[in-house]
Design a protein that fits this description.
The complex is a heterodimer of chains A (116) and B (117). Chain A is an all-beta fold and 116 residues long. Helices cover 0% and strands 47% of the residues of chain A. In chain A, strands 1-10-8-3-4 form a five-stranded mixed beta sheet, with no helix packed on it. Chain A has a four-stranded antiparallel beta sheet with strand order 2-7-6-5, with no helix packed on it. With 117 residues, chain B is mainly β. Helices cover 0% and strands 54% of the residues of chain B. Chain B is built from no helices and twelve strands. In chain B, strand 5 and strand 6 (54-57) form a beta hairpin. The chains are: A mainly beta (116), B mainly beta (117).
């Protein structure tokens, strides 16, 4: 699975958009970009994932560059409860006969602090 | 909607004792995983299962055993606990695949905090 690079920490004002970048310059064509977050003392929470098109759900938007070497997670209106460690993970999808059955490799992530 | 439930939430063991951590999911997921999380190390995969009756080793399987006798349950066992196994243990589950490829996200429980003295 491709390696990802994220800034160690970011700040955001409550109510503003939080834009979290991720570099994955060695991503290959069959690898997806996933975002998870971990709020203190809780299990990781799935946010969103995509392959090459931009994606949006009720939690966030995912913007993937055309060359797929980087992506940005956007929390449109950050709240104090969004303070967490955010992980960008690149993972290949499994297929018949494959061996990487969904293994997720968590790096250090970005500590996002939302302040009043 | 319970999702992934882990029991117990906390446990303190003495070196050499044994115990079993239970993970239960109610989403009819085929795949289940056990991870451990240590400070500065991120999450590391211990064992996983792609279906009832099947298990496989992950990155750090030594000292652990697992069983998947029922689709909804995945058990992690420590036969002889060691201080190095002090950690937070997370269970996760996911659907297998759609359209021949799997991009299904994993859903995690809230963890079991295990201390071994």
């Amino acid at each position: 699975d491709a390696k990802t690079t994220q800034p160690p920490s970011m700040d955001c004002a409550e109510g503003r958009a939080a834009n979290l970048p991720c570099n994955h310059s060695t991503i290959s064509g069959n690898e997806y970009v996933y975002w998870y977050r971990q709020i203190h003392s809780q299990g990781p929470q799935y946010i969103i994932h995509g392959l090459k098109n931009n994606e949006t759900n009720e939690m966030a938007s995912l913007i993937i560059t055309e060359d797929r070497k980087s992506s940005t997670l956007i929390l449109p209106h950050a709240t104090l409860r969004d303070t967490a460690v955010y992980y960008c993970i690149v993972r290949v999808g499994t297929h018949a006969g494959g061996t990487s059955y969904g293994k997720l490799t968590f790096g250090q992530g970005t500590i996002l602090t939302v302040h009043p | 909607n319970a999702g992934v439930t882990q029991t117990p939430k906390f446990r303190v063991l003495k070196t050499g004792q044994s115990m079993t951590l239970l993970c239960a999911q109610d989403m009819n997921h085929e795949y289940m995983y056990w991870y451990r999380q240590d400070p500065g190390m991120g999450l590391r995969l211990i064992h996983y299962s792609v279906g009832e009756g099947t298990t496989a080793k992950g990155e750090v399987p030594d000292g652990y055993n697992v069983s998947r006798l029922k689709k909804q349950n995945f058990l992690l066992g420590l036969e002889s606990a060691a201080p190095s196994q002090t950690s937070v243990y997370f269970c996760a589950s996911s659907y297998a695949r759609t359209g021949g490829r799997s991009n299904q996200p994993q859903h995690f429980g809230d963890g079991t905090r295990l201390s071994i003295l």
